[in-house]
UniProtKB/TrEMBL annotation:
<dbReference type="InterPro" id="IPR025161">
    <property type="entry name" value="IS402-like_dom"/>
</dbReference>
<dbReference type="Pfam" id="PF13340">
    <property type="entry name" value="DUF4096"/>
</dbReference>
<dbReference type="InterPro" id="IPR052909">
    <property type="entry name" value="Transposase_6_like"/>
</dbReference>
<feature type="domain" description="Insertion element IS402-like">
    <location>
        <begin position="6"/>
        <end position="80"/>
    </location>
</feature>
<protein>
    <submittedName>
        <fullName>Transposase</fullName>
    </submittedName>
</protein>
Length: 144
């Protein structure tokens, strides 16, 4: 198992949410194991590399890409996200993500003139902040 691959606990929680690939579809190669496919997808999403650069230990890059695309079109990822969020909420686990993005006035292109005045008026170059507070439905304060 490589760094970033699914642990046994993570795999047990995830495998029931994935569609079952038929063992014998007729002609062609048998489908590869879902766990290695998921690890390949996670590797690609984590690294941001092209699909063709997914290491062969996860299987054929084309198989990984096609499975990702097929599951995306079928809504599998939305179902996984909703189910995992419900599990986390039921067990009292919360995850909050925040991002700050800074852009300089010159990041918009063009040099000087009206565009700079418009960008400054819109606040370009100032940070955009996102803050979220999460409170359980029963009114209790979340435990740290």
């Amino acid at each position: 198992m490589s760094r970033g691959d699914l642990t046994e606990t993570e795999w047990r929680a995830l495998k029931g949410l994935l569609p079952i690939e038929p063992e014998n579809r007729g002609r062609g190669r048998p489908p590869e194991q879902n766990r290695s496919i998921i690890n390949g997808i996670l590797w690609r999403l984590r690294c941001g590399a092209p699909w063709r650069d997914v290491p062969s230990k996860y299987g054929s890059w084309n198989t990984i890409y096609r499975r990702f695309r097929r599951w995306s079109e079928a809504g599998v990822w939305e179902n996984v996200a909703v189910t995992l969020a419900e599990i986390m909420a039921d067990t009292g686990h919360y995850s909050i993500d925040s991002t700050t993005v800074r852009a300089h006035v010159s990041a918009a292109g063009g040099k000087g003139g009206l565009i700079n005045a418009l960008l400054v008026a819109r606040g370009a170059g100032s940070p955009v902040n996102f803050t979220a507070w999460l409170t359980p439905l029963d009114g209790r304060s979340p435990s740290p």
